[in-house]
Model the fold of this input.
Amino acid sequence: MSSAPHIPVLKEPVLALFEPLGEGVVVDCTAGYGGHARALLERFSQIRYIGIDQDPVAIAYCQEHLADFGDRVQLRRGAFSEVLPTLLREPLVAVLADLGVSSLQLDDADRGFGFDSPVLDMRMDSHRPKSAADVINHYSEAELAHIFGLYGEEPQAKKMAALIARHRPFFSAKALSGLVEAHFKRGRIHPATRIFQAVRIEVNDELGEIERLLDALEKLARPGLKVGVIAFHSLEDRLIKDRFRLWAQRCICPPQSWRCECGGDRAKGKLLTKKPLVATDQEIAQNPRSRSAKLRGFQFTRSADGS
Ligand SMILES: C[S@@+](CC[C@H](N)C(=O)[O-])C[C@H]1O[C@@H](n2cnc3c(N)ncnc32)[C@H](O)[C@@H]1O
Done:
């Protein structure tokens, strides 16, 4: 493939969020198909780029697609929560994370993310121990109902879990989505959309990864470092919003305190976005996936040790 098959969401807002950017390294936690990578490397000629992805297919693609930038580009395969802490010595100026799956992963029938897929997998990293088939076929009915409700925010979680438990085992996404479709009314979206999201989050421990990403960023903090995170559903966005707000808090005294004893100067930095940035109608028309994207930004003003 010679051109980028994945349209980067909120490309211009990401570039505007990072502008101006000093000389140094930009880490892209979710290199994917190099869409943001190319935009960043072209716009900021003084930066080096380190791209992380846990999907070997994405890394191989970026290796080829970004070859024209030579040694300005380094790629690392692995979970961002594991790779980020190894970058402590790099002169970091910005970190980007564009969460979730790429459209190529979604569209590749052999990965098991789509409703019509002949497999039931959903692992972004094929080395992960647990696949979607393991979750669907081996979790108890109560556990399924729990993850469908929690990660899918599916109102009919219990009924869907009971139906699936009665008809398993399943060996393909197609059989699973077909069963749900036969028993639940199709609205604006496929009735299995929310439970597919829930299983994907469970298989890839997506929320745990975000928590660990935020923990790692706290340790990488240094004055001037900018962070941009794009989330695609409310569970992800809430984790980011809450942590950014906590970082921006000037007073960290417990709420029951009579008066401030921490000095009122404890903010790690400032919010770059009071409200999340979202796609314009024009972008949504070109790239429907951008509809649910929310970009939040933060800039550290202190180092991890508080200095
Ligand atoms: C939405 S795509 C990123 C697209 C990219 N920004 C672009 O412009 O092409 C998300 C990518 O992040 C990767 N990914 C998701 N969670 C990850 C994690 N915890 N660690 C490393 N990579 C992850 C996925 O494999 C996928 O390739």
About this structure: DSSP finds 13 helices and seven strands in the chain. The pocket of S-adenosylmethionine is lined by residues 6, 8, 30, 32-36, 52-55, 58, 79-80, 98, 100-102, 124, 209 (CB under 6 Å). Residues 6 and 103 are 6 Å apart (CA to CA).
